[in-house]
Amino acid sequence: MGLMRMNCPYCGIEMKKGMITGDRRGKVRWENDGEKLNPIEKIFTEKGCIEAYYGFDKFYIAGYYCDNCKKIIIDAKLK
Ligand SMILES: [Zn+2]
Fold this sequence. Notes:
This protein is mainly beta. It has one helix at 39-44, and strands spanning 16-23, 53-54, 58-66, 71-74. Strands 1, 2, 3 and 4 form a four-stranded antiparallel beta sheet that branches.
């Protein structure tokens, strides 16, 4: 998770480094509009999964937050 400084592409101020985190019951996925995964795909594939670090009880996805624009930027690395 070697992140560097990042300036917001919208407003230009320096973004806050941090993490999206939650419990580890499910994978974190990206789904394109109109391309919902079926339940089988959700259980047996990693399609659309965002690369996350899984700790003992949580997952972590490193990223940046702009307090001004309320936007988060993550390095998604979709599978
Ligand atoms: Zn901004």
